[in-house]
Write a structure and sequence with these properties.
The complex is a heterodimer of chains A (277) and B (304).
Chain A lengths: L2 H13 L5 H17 L5 E3 L4 E4 L10 E7 L9 E8 L6 E7 L8 E5 L5 E9 L4 E8 L14 H5 L4 E5 L9 E7 L19 E11 L2 E8 L8 E6 L5 E12 L8 E13 L2
Parallel strand pairs in A: 1-8
Antiparallel strand pairs in A: 2-3, 3-6, 4-5, 4-7, 5-12, 7-8, 9-10, 10-13, 11-12, 11-14, 14-15
Chain B lengths: L1 H17 L6 E4 L2 E4 L17 E5 L4 E4 L5 H14 L4 E5 L5 H4 L11 E5 L2 H19 L14 E3 L2 E5 L4 E6 L9 E5 L4 E9 L10 H12 L5 E6 L11 H19 L4 H7 L11 H16 L4
Parallel strand pairs in B: 4-5, 5-6, 6-7, 11-12
Antiparallel strand pairs in B: 1-2, 2-3, 3-4, 8-9, 9-10, 10-11
Helix pairs in contact in B: 5-6, 6-8, 7-8
The chains are: A mainly beta (277), B alpha/beta (304).
Chain lengths: 277, 304
């Protein structure tokens, strides 16, 4: 328990109940995350490029569904190049970066994430011309016995690396088709040794995802521990004809839950499925 | 000299005397239960919501679940000392949830062994930091890592504890309510303390495996017990009748989630549609049901 961190938080909450809360919400973003990830860049805040949907309360902090919907059709000269997602108040706020191509058809991405505490969740879309648009929502933490780490990771571990593609409806040629990718992986955050339990466990999570159709890249993603165990993504691709949809997933293991300086190279898992429109 | 000694004694025991005993009821010979209120843990109840209690033998007392905060642990300890002069030898933690283990530090003393499922330590380590932050934020309880006490004795499959004149059988269950559920059976009175393997009135909360829990239920249903102590809800004496509402709820979740998955529904849709016919049958349904569906969905989608 870090009292030094906890006590000022309680102090602030007690003294400034409502008036300051809106400003507080932006503190970590303005002082830490924006300078780290978007130094000297201008972010327009609007829902014109993408929208973000999440539950108001994270009933299950280990599985918070997050859906990003693009309002732009991906074309060769005008497309969303990437979307970056953050949960400001998570121990490791960076959730992932999702890179799209014109072949993605539509730059939508749905996922399940961990939310540790009351926090803004934000998604920043970058267009192919470099312009940046941010959209955000606020998720309230849940209470009770639930936690961002489920107690049952044995199942995910026993089928580590197993993947499934699920098509959402009949496949149509020349149109964006929605597909779900399920990845079996514990995506564990790791544990720092504490004096009581003497327990130490390295983090073990999916750090990269690459999806292609007939060798053309549709989606690449860089992800971290805020992605729930058994990572689950939904996204679009445009098949011009029958072909093979392939996912390649690489994991890693790092010494501590929040430090990425000492990590070991993990394994790569692949899964392919024939698509017959 | 004598006055000084008395004074010293008084000073040492003062904090213990200060605690008001937790109300407990002797349900059968030597088994004392405090029945918690059906409330969501918050800053008003400070996490004091679970059933707690103790079993008294001729040589030893075993405390079962220690409380929702250290202060409630002290109140439970006071209840023990008002019921018997027999010393506490064991504190049994039935699983990792805060409402059951946050009173641990109140019992820490020479001669007291903490007992838990062999996966309890890992669960405490995985969730400890998070839980402690939540204790301050949501329960307004200030705790440190020293209040979370890992088991001295880990139960792998099953284990017997001799309390003198009565023997408790501890069973480490496969993943069900959580992955570290431990039940306590007292042969002398045919009482089983199921803790959160059984919920009555209070909606069951799933934090382990739906299929695993249903499998444990199927086994427990075959056995006969005179008294059954749930983790939340009143002590029951009509086993296995009193298990049926929970079995029905969990079975319904399984059936409806499987159907939703088959139809291509997503997790976020399922939490809005599955299981709502049970809404009026349970206390705290709105607080926990969606989380139950979410956990079960993530498990069942890997079935085929």
């Amino acid at each position: 328990m870090h009292y030094s961190k906890l006590l000022p938080a309680i102090f602030i909450t007690a003294l400034l109940p409502i008036a300051a809360s809106a400003a507080d919400e932006e503190t970590r973003w303005n002082t830490v995350l924006k300078p780290e990830f978007f130094a000297q860049q201008t972010l327009e805040e609007s829902d014109k490029v993408i929208t973000l949907e999440a539950p108001v309360r994270a009933e299950d902090p280990s599985l918070v569904p997050l859906k990003i919907t693009s309002k732009i059709k991906q074309s060769q000269d005008h497309y969303i190049k990437n979307i970056r997602v953050f949960v400001d108040n998570n121990p490791y706020p960076f959730v992932g970066e999702f890179d799209f191509t014109p072949e993605s058809g539509k730059a939508d991405i749905a996922m399940r994430i961990r939310v540790n505490t009351n926090s803004p969740i934000r998604a920043i879309a970058q267009m192919n011309d470099g312009s940046l648009t941010m959209t955000k929502t606020f998720v309230k933490a849940s209470g009770g016995c639930s936690a961002p780490i489920g107690t049952n990771s044995d199942d995910a571990m026993s089928r580590l690396g197993k993947m499934k593609f699920k098509m959402e409806g009949d496949v149509k040629v020349g149109e964006p088709n929605l597909v779900q990718l399920m990845i079996s992986h514990p995506n564990v955050t790791g544990m720092q040794m504490d004096q009581v339990t003497r327990f130490v466990k390295k983090s073990h999570f999916v750090k990269q995802l690459k999806v292609s159709f007939n060798d053309k890249t549709i989606l690449t993603a860089k992800t971290d521990i805020a992605i729930s165990s058994d990572p689950n993504f939904r996204f679009y691709f445009v098949p011009e004809k029958a072909g093979v949809l392939t996912a390649e997933v690489t994991d890693t293991s790092c010494e501590t839950p929040t430090d990425r300086t000492v990590c070991t190279k993990g394994n790569t898992y692949t899964e392919s499925v024939n698509i017959q429109p | 000299m004598r006055i000084l000694l008395l004074l010293t004694l008084f000073m040492v025991s003062a904090p213990t005397l200060a605690a008001t005993a937790l109300p407990v009821k002797e349900i059968t010979d030597g088994i004392y239960v405090h029945v918690g209120k059906h409330q969501f843990p918050d800053s008003k109840n400070h996490g004091e919501i679970a059933n707690l209690g103790f079993i008294v033998g001729q040589k030893c007392v075993a405390v079962i679940d220690s409380g929702g905060n250290p202060e409630q642990g002290l109140a439970l300890k006071q209840a023990v000392s008002e019921a018997t002069n027999t010393p506490i030898c064991y504190v049994i933690n039935t699983h990792v949830h805060p409402d059951h283990i946050y009173g641990n530090s109140a019992f820490k003393a020479p001669g007291v062994k903490f007992v838990g499922h062999h996966k309890l330590t890992a669960a405490m380590a995985a969730r400890g930091t998070y839980y402690l932050a939540k204790a301050a934020e949501q329960l307004e309880v200030n705790m440190s890592a020293a209040d979370l006490i890992a088991p001295d004795i880990e139960v792998k499959d099953s284990m017997k504890l001799d309390l003198g004149g009565r023997t408790l059988t501890l069973k480490a269950h496969a993943t069900a309510h959580t992955d570290n559920d431990l039940s306590v059976y007292d042969e002398k009175t045919h009482t089983i303390w199921l803790a959160d393997l059984l919920f009555t009135e209070h909606v069951p909360t799933l934090d382990g495996s739906l299929k695993g829990w249903l499998a444990e239920i199927a086994q427990l249903e075959q056995q006969s017990f005179r008294y059954v102590v749930p983790g939340h809800g009143d002590v029951v004496t009509d086993w296995p009748q009193s298990l049926q509402p929970q079995k029905h709820y969990l079975t319904l979740l399984q059936t409806e989630i499987r159907a939703a998955i088959k139809k291509g529904r997503h997790l976020e849709d399922a939490v809005k549609t599955v299981g709502y016919s049970e809404k009026n049958n349970w206390a705290l349904f709105d607080d926990y049901h969606r989380k139950n569906v979410s956990t079960a969905f993530a498990e069942l989608e890997w079935e085929d």
